[in-house]
Design goal:
mainly alpha, 5 helices, 61% helix
Amino acid sequence: MHSPSDPSQPPAPRVLAYVRIYTVAVGLLYLCACALLTWLFASSPLPPGIPGALRLIRLAFVLLCAVLAAGFLAFPFLPSRPWLWGYGLACIVTGLTSVITIPFALPLLLSWTRPQTRAYLHSLSAPSRSAGGALRDPFVPK
């Protein structure tokens, strides 16, 4: 793992801190939506003539918000490993589906997809073997 006093490791890109802030903010947004939907659905029960499918749709919305909140809120606590780049990319791309988060997600996407970010996260893992045909990521610059 990266140690701030380790001079052999490059400094963390600023976008990593920005994505952590973004994921916490969006995770809290989803958590608030989950709480609001739960309160709304509990305070306004469906009339008896409404089909059961609508009850399932209500439950699906609450569960979707809870899963997304957990996924976004987990990001800052995950270890810096090569797979974190893909996880962060998934969080950023999920933000592109909402009008509220597009202004934040689009610049983050442009910064996150730079080769330096991926190379930094790959540099924190165990060194990979490059000569002799073993496990080197073709997307990381040499």
